[in-house]
């Protein structure tokens, strides 16, 4: 299949916006930056709002098929025209399952492809390493980072913990640090009144997700904790087996995960098996090309 991908960012950002570089590699597809005027391909996959804007200016007749992948919550909320456009033009949609509450169009659930073949993963045996990626630079608390830090500091008085906040690091260094962690905390936003919701313009409350960072953690054999109630993803794939925790339950959930080694290891093993299967290049390739006959 001669497939092209229009990403919402420059192709050099291989791990942003539905990991467009990884997807292009898995599909053996051409990867275009937004702003492309022509795309010499038969089938087109558009990632994100900016990619959809770009597609709307292209000659639609030249493509045998078109599909859209939505992966960014903020754009889905702030740019409602995306929903209207795909509905009016009958465009197949794939979306991260956590966008369920923000999309008005039918969609097929999809996670991005990720793998680290040949990577040696070593966890320290003398302490429990906990990692968290705050995400946006600046005085934001949209993942509950401040509360995560407070709880970890409190528990560090009882347990031998090393906490790593992965900020301002290149992706390869971030992956290296994350591979040493026993526990990865994606976010705790649900029921957290301290979380900064300003990025959504005050229109809607964000209730959490399993993001790319959490998927990376599971792939690196971390035990992943995140605020996330997954909608039904059947019959496409089972929901990811991450440990759910909101603001009120987070301390107890984290403490159990620190103390109970068997629980932590079994959860990490199950999560990695899920990611290895359902975020594999083979599965994601099959999943996001369902519209191509």
Distance between the termini: 10 Å
Order of the strands making up the biggest sheet = 2-1-3-4-5-6
Order of helices and strands: EHEEHEHHEEEHEHEHEEHHH
Q: Label the structural class.
A: alpha/beta
Q: What is the number of beta strands?
A: 11
Mean residue pLDDT: 86
Number of helices: 10
> What coarse outline follows from CA principal-axis ratios?
globular
Highest-level CATH class of the largest domain: Alpha Beta
Q: Give a quick account of the main beta sheet: strands, pairing sense, barrel closure.
A: 6 strands, parallel
The CATH superfamily label of the largest domain reads Glycogen Phosphorylase B
The low-confidence parts are: 11-15
Please give the CATH architecture of the largest domain.
3-Layer(aba) Sandwich
Tell me the fraction of residues in β-strands, as a range.
Answer: 5-15%
**Rg for CA atoms:** 19 Å
How much helical structure, as a percent, in the residues? Answer: 25-40%
CATH topology call of the largest domain = Rossmann fold
Number of domains: 2
Description:
The protein has 293 residues and is an alpha/beta fold. It has two domains: 3-110, Rossmann fold; 128-278, Rossmann fold (3-Layer(aba) Sandwich), CATH 3.40.50. Helices cover 31% and strands 14% of the residues. It contains ten helices and eleven strands. The chain has helices spanning 20-27, 48-55, 73-78, 81-88, 145-155, 171-178, 212-219, 250-259, 261-278, 281-287; strands at 3-6, 30-32, 43-47, 65-70, 93-95, 108-109, 128-132, 161-165, 183-185, 223-226, 243-244. The protein has a six-stranded parallel beta sheet. It has a five-stranded parallel beta sheet with strand order 8-7-9-10-11, with helices on both faces. Strand 7, helix 5 (145-155) and strand 8 (161-165) form a beta-alpha-beta unit. The radius of gyration is 19 Å and the shape is globular. It starts with a strand and ends in a 6-residue tail after the last helix. Residues 11-15 have low confidence and may be disordered.
